[in-house]
Specification:
The complex is a heterodimer. Chain A is 75% helix and 0% strand. Chain A is an all-alpha fold. Chain A has a domain of 148 residues. By secondary structure, chain B is α+β, with helices and mostly antiparallel strands. Classes of the chains: A mainly alpha, B alpha+beta. Chains A and B meet through helix 1 and helix 2 of A and strand 2, helix 9 and helix 19 of B.
């Protein structure tokens, strides 16, 4: 009696349970959906805020306003046709001027350090090891030899520099470079003459001349001391000299020499 | 209880009748009860069904309505790069319900006058006491003001949010975009032309994308405004157009108009000179005449010779030149020095019929083809199109068209001779380019390149040249019809000329001479520099690479130019 009696109860209970679980599922789904809608609403609200802010920024930074700032403050202008490049080659071409400077620089460097270190080490310790002074002295000898050599021509060149009012522009120190032999003798001679004669017009600072005699005697001492070395170095210097200076006649040679010395002087 | 007894006892006839009545009443009552039960059952069933329906398909209690989508009240208008040009925002509106006011009216009026000084105290008091139901005190009020008005604490003051149209770029492209009235209905420009699409809930979610480029527009507007103020012109118009697709990249009409407060602009400012104003555009017509003549076989070579005396007397009228040749001159020279006399002779050879046919094909005799509703009607000789009119129309006099007509015409001339109507909507997947039709032959179009480049390199338009961008074009200065001492100067330019892509048409209305123009006020002096400046600004944006080594094929024209002429 109990079994069939409870069967109906079980049936009802199971039905109720099934219905309840179904309802729970749907409730769960509904709550998920509600959460999703909440998120969607938040997204829409955020989008609306973004839109509002974009509009505000766009309005504050409108092109007319930017243009006004540009006219008043920035003053930017459209790029010109030359500012556009075709490609890498054209860009590379823009770098061309630099090598030019490098070509000039070695000339200056070769001439510049040579005379300056000379006097100092020599005065300090002349008796020092020959090896230490060797490099410096060899450079110095080269010029001295040149001066010696060309002194033969001095009378010819002397007349012209004196006749011209132009005084040697460059400092006498600069006149010593190894490469230029013809100029140096001419100048040194001219300077000597000028010094001897009287105050010169358009002279550089007298300090320069004060320096010049100092350096020269030092060179002269060396000359006396290191003649053997100088002889050994001779051939090299000669070849250089003949290539550059000899073919020129005395007149243009002097003019050229002045120019070159002038250049080196300015470059210095 | 009575029933059994009644059955036993012989009923009296009246009792019997009574029993019958009771039975009838009973059955009736049963019926009524049944009916009532059914009604209740039905109602319960309905409720249950509704509940079940809602449980199955309905929204739950927490569902929110209204903010689930971001469809604006009125569609946006954006430029070709997606920059907003018109948007609808929620603005604060302050209103007044005089009948709902409960506070001290005098005091309220005083406070309102302090906050919003557009009316004085008496004015506000009159409003508060009036019998009208509603007043707008301020539309698009600033938040600070809204707060202050709210602080008055008067229930009769209504503070509400209302959709309002905002043009973030203010006056930029104002005549293209147009503006709306207070109810949000478009009254000008694209707002008017596309009103349906902008306000229809189905389509307003998608913005209307214009072919206008704000950057190009700004460059054109700025340079043109500069020239307008510098030369004290009363107005100006400018158009930049893509030759191939007919897209208008920039279109402006000056004086400027702020569409955010369109009502405050003058009539002059609201007038769209680019599409509504018609002007005699003068010599800018000459290339058309030459192209027509070349297409019809009247002019066979740029070297064809015409007699160009100092004056030409025809049909009782004298035609003059600003740079008279007084010798035989070639077509190339006629164009270079903008000779009316030479062009008139070419036009005369062409004849009225062919000229009209060409003009009709270019759309010059109809209102200009564009989406805007503000379109001017061409003024042409009409039925009096005789030989003299043919000659004057040949050099741009006696016919008045809009600047946009001119731009479309130049676009057709350099698009290989193919005419395409101008459009303000971006050409792309959603909006295909309009179908074109042939006006000039491709060969003619090609030959015109070098001819117009010649005008800029050696002729009247030298100041229009932008180095590297190969600008070609034609100047035009026409006297105004109502006052012959006033000029309308125009420059129609095309660049890059070796591969034409963009047309620039610039017009100044009544420019005055200045010291640096040496007293001249013709197009070569005032509008040509605008083209030069504009092109050098916009060309890099449009992807035109400047190149000083490229030129159109100038050997077409250079042999026919006599260099000795000095001007």
């Amino acid at each position: 009696m109990s079994a069939p009696g409870f069967r109906s109860v079980f049936m009802v209970a199971s039905c109720a349970g099934a219905a309840l679980s179904c309802y729970l599922v749907s409730l769960n789904v509904a709550s998920e959906r509600a959460a999703l809608e909440d998120v969607e609403t938040k997204i829409v609200l955020a989008q609306r805020d973004i839109r509002l802010l974009q509009t505000e920024i766009g309005t504050r930074g409108r092109l007319a306003q930017l243009e006004r700032w540009n006219v008043k403050v920035l003053a930017l202008s459209a790029p010109s046709a030359d500012q556009f490049l075709e490609g890498g080659f054209q860009l590379a071409r823009l770098g061309r001027p630099e090598p030019k400077l490098n070509v000039e620089a070695p000339v200056v460097l070769a001439s510049a350090p040579a005379p300056n270190p000379q006097p100092a080490p020599l005065e300090e310790g002349e008796r020092r090891t020959a090896g230490a002074g060797a490099t410096a002295s060899s450079a110095a000898q080269l010029m001295q030899q040149a001066s010696l050599k060309v002194q033969v021509r001095e009378p010819m060149q002397l007349a012209e520099p004196i006749a011209r009012p132009e005084p040697p522009k460059a400092q006498p120190v600069a006149a010593k470079p190894v490469a230029k032999k013809a100029p140096t003798p001419a100048k040194i001679a001219a300077e000597k003459l000028e010094k001897a004669s009287a105050p010169k017009p358009g002279k550089p600072a007298p300090a320069n001349f004060a320096k010049a005699p100092e350096t020269k005697p030092a060179g002269a001492d060396k000359k006396a001391g290191d003649k053997k070395l100088a002889l050994a170095a001779k051939p090299m210097t000669k070849s250089v000299r003949t290539a550059k200076v000899d073919p020129l006649a005395p007149l243009p040679a002097s003019a050229n020499s002045k120019k070159t010395t002038g250049n080196s002087g300015t470059a210095r | 209880m009575n029933a059994p007894t009644s059955a036993l006892v012989a009923p009296r006839p009246e009792r019997l009748r009574l029993v019958g009545q009771r039975r009838q009443i009973l059955t009736m009552m049963h019926q009524r009860l049944m009916f009532g039960l059914l009604v209740y059952a039905g109602v319960v069933a309905l409720i249950v069904m509704r509940i079940l329906y809602l449980a199955a398909f309905g929204d739950h209690a927490g569902a929110k309505q209204g903010v689930t989508s971001l469809v604006p009240e009125r569609g946006d208008i954006v430029d070709r790069d997606g920059q907003p040009l018109a948007r609808t925002i929620d603005a604060w509106t302050i209103g007044l319900w005089p009948s709902k006011v409960i506070g001290n009216k005098l005091e309220i009026a005083r406070k309102l006058a302090q906050l919003m000084p557009e009316h004085d105290e008496a004015g506000y008091l009159a409003m508060l006491r009036s019998k009208k139901s509603f007043f707008y005190l301020r539309r698009r009020a600033a938040p600070g003001l809204v707060e202050a008005v709210n602080a008055i604490g008067e229930p009769g003051l209504a503070i509400e949010r209302e959709p309002d149209r905002l043009y973030p770029q203010t006056s930029l492209a104002a005549h293209v975009i147009g503006y709306t009235d207070v109810d949000g209905k478009g009254t000008a420009g694209i707002e008017r032309a596309m009103d349906e699409k902008l306000s229809d809930p189905a389509t307003r979610g998608q913005p209307v994308q214009l072919s206008i480029s704000t950057k190009v527009q700004q460059a054109l507007e700025h340079e043109l405004l500069d020239a307008m103020t510098h030369f004290s012109a009363v107005g100006a118009a400018g158009i930049v157009m893509d030759i191939h697709s007919g897209e208008v990249l920039a279109m402006t009409s000056l004086p400027q108009l702020n569409p955010n407060a369109a009502g405050k602009g003058s009539m002059e400012a609201r007038f769209n000179r680019a599409t509504l104003g018609v002007y005699e555009l003068g010599s800018t017509f000459k290339p058309f005449t030459v192209a027509m003549a070349m297409d019809s076989g009247v002019v066979r070579s740029m070297g064809q010779i015409y007699n160009c005396p100092n004056q030409l007397n025809v049909y009782g009228r004298t035609i003059n030149d600003t740079h008279p040749f007084n010798r035989a001159c070639t077509v190339a020279e006629i164009m270079k020095e903008s000779s009316n006399i030479g062009t008139a002779q070419i036009a005369a050879q062409l004849g009225a019929t062919r000229q009209k046919e060409f003009l009709r094909k270019m759309g010059f005799l109809d209102p200009v083809a564009i989406e805007l509703r503000e379109k001017g009607r061409t003024l042409s000789p009409g039925n009096n199109w005789g030989p003299l009119e043919t000659m004057t129309v040949g050099y741009g006099h006696g016919i008045a068209v809009t600047p946009l007509h001119l731009a479309s015409g130049y676009a057709a001339l350099f698009n290989g001779g193919l005419y395409r109507p101008a459009t303000l909507l971006k050409v792309g997947r959603k909006h295909a380019a309009a179908k074109g039709h042939r006006v000039f032959s491709e060969g003619t179009s090609y030959k015109m390149r070098s001819l117009l480049r010649l005008v800029v390199t050696k002729g009247t338009g030298k100041k229009a040249d932008a180095p590297g961008y190969r600008v070609g074009g034609k100047t035009g200065s026409a006297e105004k019809y109502h006052n012959r001492s006033l000029l309308v100067t125009t420059f129609a330019g095309v660049f890059p000329m070796d591969e034409p892509r963009y047309v620039v048409v610039v017009m100044l209305d009544e420019p005055k001479a200045t010291a640096e123009t040496y007293g001249f006020r013709t197009a070569g002096w005032n509008v040509a520099p605008v083209v030069s400046k504009t092109v050098s600004r916009i060309a890099p944006m449009l992807g035109v690479r400047p190149d000083k080594n490229r030129e159109p094929n100038m050997s077409e024209v250079l042999p026919y130019v006599h260099e000795k002429t000095e001007h």
